[in-house]
From TrEMBL:
The gene is dnaJ. This is Chaperone protein DnaJ. A zinc finger (CR-type) spans 111-189. It comes from the Bacteria. CDD domains: DnaJ, DnaJ_C, DnaJ_zf. One of its GO terms (cellular component) is cytoplasm. SUPFAM superfamilies: Chaperone J-domain (SSF46565), DnaJ/Hsp40 cysteine-rich domain (SSF57938), HSP40/DnaJ peptide-binding domain (SSF49493).
Length: 234
């Protein structure tokens, strides 16, 4: 993917086109950045937001939205494994959560039901997760007309980028919910019951579906993973 893009925007193939020369430099800078394991991990986790101003405690600081950071999202997204896109209406799946639990050897042998408390984002009850003030609704973005993408033409090339007005959601909120500030979710501590089967082994992972963070603006919730560690027997 990198070689194809580099050839497409190479200055030798686009003589006199300064926009292609600039794009070629951005592509090379992005590629070099993603060769760094730490920055690659940050991109896998946070997407292009990891390289916007203030991200990574340096590195790509100073590149605002619509600049260098967009290269990762719009050009390298597929090459990096295709980060999950937003669904229509700006709904996004919530993050998965991890909870570490220690149990005794006796509990691992016999099994038990444990109660845990997990701080996590949950759907806002005030706006039912929409992010909009009760009695109002999100409206279609006037810039991208609900597509979440805008197309820019540079010479012979047409490049599609994330809409800067709605950040790819396709909708904007004129009157945000006062409780969740337009996010559609709030952070609270929840109490959950975890069934630990008899004969469990050290290092076992238990998945609780849809018990992770709530999705953004009504999106599906993530999962909660319980990682069990069996304490040595005295």
């Amino acid at each position: 993917a990198f070689r194809k893009l580099a050839m497409q925007f190479h200055p030798d193939r686009n003589p006199g086109d300064h926009s292609c020369e600039h794009k070629f430099k951005e592509i090379n800078e992005a590629y070099e950045t993603l060769k760094d394991p730490q920055k690659r991990a940050a991109y896998d986790r946070f997407g292009h937001a990891a390289f916007e101003q203030g991200g990574m405690n340096g590195g790509a600081q100073g590149f605002g939205a619509g600049g260098f950071a967009d290269i990762f999202e719009d050009i390298f997204g597929d090459m990096m494994g295709g980060r999950q896109r937003r669904s229509s209406g700006g709904r996004e799946r919530g993050a998965d959560l991890r909870y570490n639990m220690e149990i005794s050897l006796e509990e691992a042998f016999a099994g038990k039901t444990a109660q845990i408390r997990v701080p996590a984002s949950i759907s806002c009850t005030e706006c039912s997760g929409s992010g909009a003030k009760p009695g109002t609704q999100p409206v279609t973005c006037s810039m991208c007309h609900g597509h979440g993408k805008v197309r820019a033409t540079q010479g012979f090339f047409s490049i599609e980028r994330t809409c800067p007005q709605c950040q790819g959601r396709g909708q904007t909120i004129k009157d945000p919910c006062p409780k969740c500030a337009g996010q559609g979710r709030v952070t609270e501590e929840r109490s959950l019951s975890v069934n630990i089967p008899a004969g469990i082994e050290d290092g076992t992972r238990i998945r609780l579906a849809n018990e992770g963070e709530a999705g953004l603006r009504g999106g599906p919730s993530g999962d909660l993973y319980i990682f069990l560690a069996v304490k040595p027997h005295n």
